[in-house]
Amino acid sequence: MEHNEGLPAAGSDALSVTTDDREQFYLRAALSAAREISGVIQPRRILEISLLAAMGPVGAVSGACLHLRREGEAFDVVSKGLTADALEALSRLDCAELRSVLATLPTVGMTQTAGFEQDARDAMQASLDGSGLNANDFSVVVPWRADTENAGLLILGSRLSGAPLEAEEKQLVQEIARFMAGALQCALATHRIGQLNADLHRKNLELDRKVYQLGTVNDMTGELAALNDTQVLLDHFLLLVTGAMGVNGGAVLLLDRERKVTQLAARGRFLSPDKSIPAPPPGFEETDTAMYNLAVSGSLHGLKSMGVALLRDVTLVEEELEHLGPGLRNEALSAAALFTVDSGLMGLCLLGPPISGGELAADQRDLFAIHLHSLLSFLKNARSFEHIQKLNENLSQRNRELEQTIADLTEARKTISLMEELQRLMRVTLNSEIERIGRASIWDYVLIFIVSAVVALAFNATSPNGIPLMPDHLDAPSPQALSAEEALAMFEKATTEDPGAGAVIVVDARPSEFYQRAHIPGAVNMPPGFFDMVYSMRLGDVELDRPILVYGRTISRLYDRETAVRLSARDHDDVSILDGGLDAWQEAGLPVESDQ
Questions:
Q1: I want to staple 444 with a disulfide (CB 3.0 to 4.6 A). Which of 223, 406, 440, 510 is the partner?
Q2: 561-579: pLDDT as tens digits
Q3: What's the chain's Rg over C-alpha atoms?
Q4: 450 — phi, psi (to 5°)?
């Protein structure tokens, strides 16, 4: 600033100065002050420059500029020439009282009358009492206000000459304070714009991060949608989620309560010691216990199907992992979550610490939960696909068995047709021989027996279901026989006392024409001749401990005993015969039904 053109104090006899010269000097001083503070954006630097610009032209030996900010209840003080006691006394001024005085000033300005200055001195004096200072000892006190929140005081001490300030000098100080207020307003606006730009940049970065996170969810959906194998699904999910979260490892432990098995997928720090393959999954019982303890400690009893719950205290997880083998141990976890697909399938997902260090942010934990929710849908689809595959395999097996049965029946039909043709030829031959010789001899009967035996042996040799030489049931132990009343009691016990064992199965062992005339309601028609075919279609999946009641015999053949013996040979534990057969059942007044 230009201080080489200073003027002596008013009234000095050393030099005669005209009024125009004095006014030009003050104008140059004001212009120099405006030029000095223009372009400065640091508020404190503006206060320092303005204080020096005000002290120099009037020859003040001390001064201070007090700045009351919006966010505080204390002054920022810039001073020159003040003692430490005076500076401390000014810093303890009552901000609330001074703020009420400063609030009456126009924005970017100060008062042009002495009334406001005296109000400011009075407000200062109320806080200066007892400090040894007097507000009226300052040569000038100029209140200023930059905006509705930033205001203060420009205070000058005594002059070097000791003379009081004249009106023109006070006007100069007020103009400098006005320039200072305007510069502060611009600087504060620039600072606020910078803050807004910084906030905007930070929000843009946050928005970019959100876009990236949503992109990872979309990528995961596209990657996992085509996978149907549960283990492959877990491996791909873990690869995607550890990359999206920026962590150095992770693991997913799946607990299947229906099949009583566990599955494990691991990456990074959760791999086995050789870092090439995941460690074997822990046992079912240990995993079930650990997940139950985590649900209890995390107050997650009400976790429903297709639900995800982040565990807040990962130290609890680390304690439980100590019991699950080396594959899941990790010195630090950044996140852990329990999830449930349905009542039979739940799991635990673990993330190692971030590669960059520190902890996961709140939005990253939310993203982790979103990824897990996506996994649940794909796990459910994979489980349904595996179940359908199992049903298809069972159906294919049944189809193969049925095809084999049909092939056996076709072969038997061909054999029967061949035997019928042989029988017809034998009958024609015998009739012709009888007509030729007139009567039969004992050798004829021997010949017939031999031919019949040969035909029977040929049939047995060519048919997989040949006729045995001796019935199997002749040397087998006889099943227990139940009266109609005892059979009825067995029915009632099965339905009331032990319903979990299943209802009694009733088997009608008679030929189908007898069965169609009358049979016990719900009975399965299983003659000994068609035992293998009917058994595979009707009783192949029946539990071996379910009670079975067999009935049906004629004068010439014990169908019920033959069928009961064959059922016992198939390892059925509880096989009984209805004593007296269907007649005894009807005599006891029990119901029957007919298919005719």
A1: 440
A2: 999 999 999 999 899 999 9
A3: 53
A4: -65, -45
